């Protein structure tokens, strides 16, 4: 049985897609391209109107690539509008929620032998392995429909997360990325209240501290995208004390540097709060690396409001900015607004911000010149530093190792 995985969208999707691949390998499958696959799993995205178009195009391409394949469509776009996909080929398209994918694969391919799914480690998988600890979102940003597709926030039990991470560390994984749709909302009932993300990370550090090869450091953890309001002083302190075992890198979505625009986006902070948080982070970890997401041309955004965003981005000294020209997503409040920004204005602002982002990234790398970091060897000749820069690897370094590099 040949299979293919087509992944679209966020890091959470990537982790889920690796899990689907593991399950198909455990069923005796061989991973191939969509043109020769008996079963194709398409993990969809619907975060913007453009993402929705790309998703539908991807499913059509998979259906054309091999007229005899079964196509399992899952993910956010399938949750929002399943009929859009089943109508493409009702006999071949199988819609599945994330929790139902295994059931559909059992029906199409057969069950997993002995009920064991192998770890997504080794050839064909990333050396930085993602572990999903949370799903769903209780926020309702006016440009976003993911909270509708994913539902209310839910947290995976700490013991399950710890068990998976310990198993990965024993398999030799040196960097584990904690992921979630709204990662910082992870919660678990504790004796004296609620444990939060810092408590989970503290436990993970302790449980994996002694699992490593001689001469290699223990595995490190990376926090994927986390909302500004979820970065507590306890989390900042733990990161600072961990001496790099929690990567001193955060992806902290800004979206806009103007407080009026943030209110209209229904973001739960203003520009002043965000900048104050960044200052606290840099005070605790001077060489912290910060990346972010910014939307250009949100409805009603003026030139001055956009300039406020550019200026705040410069003060925050981001090492990477993911720039998104605003894209209408039907079903969201922002898409209904009459004051949409012209496409050429959105594009021009995005171009300007990308130029600013490139300059900031180059400056941050220059500021780090001569410093030493641990870097994860991801492929021959290339490694990823703690601060999320790609660098050449030292001679003889093995894929999957953590090695010391000088920037």
UniProtKB/TrEMBL annotation:
<dbReference type="InterPro" id="IPR020612">
    <property type="entry name" value="Methylthiotransferase_CS"/>
</dbReference>
<dbReference type="GO" id="GO:0035597">
    <property type="term" value="F:tRNA-2-methylthio-N(6)-dimethylallyladenosine(37) synthase activity"/>
</dbReference>
<keyword id="KW-0411">Iron-sulfur</keyword>
<dbReference type="InterPro" id="IPR013848">
    <property type="entry name" value="Methylthiotransferase_N"/>
</dbReference>
<feature type="domain" description="MTTase N-terminal">
    <location>
        <begin position="1"/>
        <end position="114"/>
    </location>
</feature>
<protein>
    <submittedName>
        <fullName>2-methylthioadenine synthetase</fullName>
    </submittedName>
</protein>
<dbReference type="InterPro" id="IPR007197">
    <property type="entry name" value="rSAM"/>
</dbReference>
<keyword id="KW-0408">Iron</keyword>
<feature type="domain" description="Radical SAM core">
    <location>
        <begin position="123"/>
        <end position="363"/>
    </location>
</feature>
<keyword id="KW-0004">4Fe-4S</keyword>
<dbReference type="InterPro" id="IPR005839">
    <property type="entry name" value="Methylthiotransferase"/>
</dbReference>
<keyword id="KW-0479">Metal-binding</keyword>
<dbReference type="Pfam" id="PF04055">
    <property type="entry name" value="Radical_SAM"/>
</dbReference>
<dbReference type="InterPro" id="IPR006638">
    <property type="entry name" value="Elp3/MiaA/NifB-like_rSAM"/>
</dbReference>
<keyword id="KW-0949">S-adenosyl-L-methionine</keyword>
<dbReference type="InterPro" id="IPR058240">
    <property type="entry name" value="rSAM_sf"/>
</dbReference>
<keyword id="KW-0808">Transferase</keyword>
<dbReference type="InterPro" id="IPR023404">
    <property type="entry name" value="rSAM_horseshoe"/>
</dbReference>
<dbReference type="GO" id="GO:0051539">
    <property type="term" value="F:4 iron, 4 sulfur cluster binding"/>
</dbReference>
<dbReference type="InterPro" id="IPR038135">
    <property type="entry name" value="Methylthiotransferase_N_sf"/>
</dbReference>
<dbReference type="Pfam" id="PF00919">
    <property type="entry name" value="UPF0004"/>
</dbReference>
<dbReference type="GO" id="GO:0005829">
    <property type="term" value="C:cytosol"/>
</dbReference>
<dbReference type="GO" id="GO:0046872">
    <property type="term" value="F:metal ion binding"/>
</dbReference>
């Amino acid at each position: 049985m040949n299979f293919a995985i087509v992944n679209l969208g966020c890091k959470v999707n990537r982790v889920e897609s690796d899990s689907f691949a593991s399950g198909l390998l455990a069923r005796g499958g061989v991973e191939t391209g969509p043109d020769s696959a008996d079963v194709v799993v398409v993990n969809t995205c619907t975060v913007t109107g453009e993402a929705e178009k790309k998703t539908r195009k991807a499913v059509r391409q998979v259906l054309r690539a091999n007229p005899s394949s079964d196509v399992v469509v899952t993910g956010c776009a399938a949750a929002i509008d399943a009929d859009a996909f089943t109508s493409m080929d009702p006999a071949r398209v199988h819609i599945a929620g994330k929790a139902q994918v295994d059931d559909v694969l059992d029906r199409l391919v057969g069950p997993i032998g002995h009920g064991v799914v192998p770890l997504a480690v080794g050839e064909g998988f990333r050396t930085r392995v993602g572990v999903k600890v949370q799903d769903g979102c209780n926020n309702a940003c006016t440009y976003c429909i993911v909270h509708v597709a994913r539902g209310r926030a839910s947290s995976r039990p700490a013991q399950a997360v710890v068990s998976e991470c310990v198993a990965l560390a024993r398999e030799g994984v040196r960097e584990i990325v904690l992921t979630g749709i709204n990662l910082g909302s992870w919660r678990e009932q504790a004796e004296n209240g609620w444990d939060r993300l810092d408590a989970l990370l503290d436990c993970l550090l302790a449980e994996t501290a002694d699992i490593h090869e001689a001469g290699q450091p223990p595995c490190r953890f990376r926090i994927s995208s986390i909302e500004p309001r979820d970065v507590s002083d306890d989390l900042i302190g733990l990161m600072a004390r961990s001496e790099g075992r929690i990567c001193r890198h955060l992806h902290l979505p800004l979206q806009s540097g103007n407080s009026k625009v943030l209110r209209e986006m229904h973001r739960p902070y203003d520009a002043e709060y965000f900048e104050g948080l960044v200052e606290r982070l840099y005070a605790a970890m001077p060489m912290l690396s910060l990346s972010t997401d910014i939307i250009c041309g949100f409805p009603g955004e003026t030139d001055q409001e956009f300039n406020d965003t550019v200026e705040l981005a410069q003060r925050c000294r981001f090492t990477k900015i993911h720039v998104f020209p605003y894209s209408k997503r039907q079903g969201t409040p922002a898409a209904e607004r009459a004051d949409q920004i012209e496409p050429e204005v959105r594009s021009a602002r995005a171009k300007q911000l990308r130029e600013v982002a490139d300059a900031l990234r180059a400056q941050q790398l220059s500021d780090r010149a001569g410093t030493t970091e641990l870097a994860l060897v991801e492929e021959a000749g290339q490694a990823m530093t703690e601060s999320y820069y790609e660098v050449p690897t030292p001679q003889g370094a093995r894929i999957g190792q953590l090695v010391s590099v000088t920037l």
